[in-house]
Amino acid sequence: MKKGLFERATEASEFVRERSSTHPKIAIVLGSGLGAVAEQVEDSLAIPYAEIPHFPHSTVEGHSGRLVMGTLRGVAVVVMQGRVHGYEGYSPEHVAFPLRVLGRLGIDIVIVTNAAGAIRLDLEQGQLVLISDHINFTGSNPLTGPNDDRFGQRFFDMTDAYSGRLRTLTKSAAKIAGSDMTEGVYICVPGPSFETPAEIRAFRAMGADLVGMSTVHEVMAARHMGIEVLGISCVTNMAAGILKQEINHREVMETGLRIQQGLGNLIASLVPQIRVQDRVEGRVHDEASH
Description:
With 290 residues, the chain is an alpha/beta fold. The protein has one domain (5-281): 3-Layer(aba) Sandwich (Rossmann fold), CATH 3.40.50. Helix content is 32%, strand content 23%. It has six helices and nine strands; from the N terminus they run αββββαββαβαβαβα. Strands 5-8-7-6-9 form a five-stranded mixed barrel.
């Protein structure tokens, strides 16, 4: 008999748990060209996705395809060094499956990052932008089909999909480091072709500030499980039609490599503050009990 989603996610999480003595409550998902952020993790253990039962394998350049367990500034974390996308041939359920595994690992908070094109004209290449909300323009949802109440309820609220609490903390951390962070709405398209100038004009009229090909399915699955989400987009290119030049994946990769150090420093400074705030609000589970 074919195993259900909950059973597959549980099997994968148990495989990971058996290989690491850490009990992380924070997960970090790294987008295109941003994988080196994982190098800041100390006492790390890297598990290739290919070794984890049922785990989808990334086929895109800039996505290493490893799960990294360890500590960041003394806080236990798990880092997804790369993700999968629908345009690789994966279903929405497969795209969101790693978040299901993180949920079964006991993750309370996930920081999702991505490479994005700037739609809003005041945004600049190389800028980090907090995601305040998203538009799912893929025409699909990873929760389509029978609902498993062990993950979460059938209908759930997405009003605060990207935690206002975590965005406030991030802005404070960035200000301490000497920079101000703006917020924006992220629209997800299926890809893999980049958008046309006409599509970008339409997306701007819809209220989108950033465009990319990932993240929203992961966030929907995370919120379904009650996981708090912080989203950060790295502006790797200006969207189609804004500049008189073509868009290519190499540009995305090069910009990601250039700004990943700043992203890593921001996340590293933020993680301990998240844990302190969680303890104040009584959100931390007794890690010894897991």
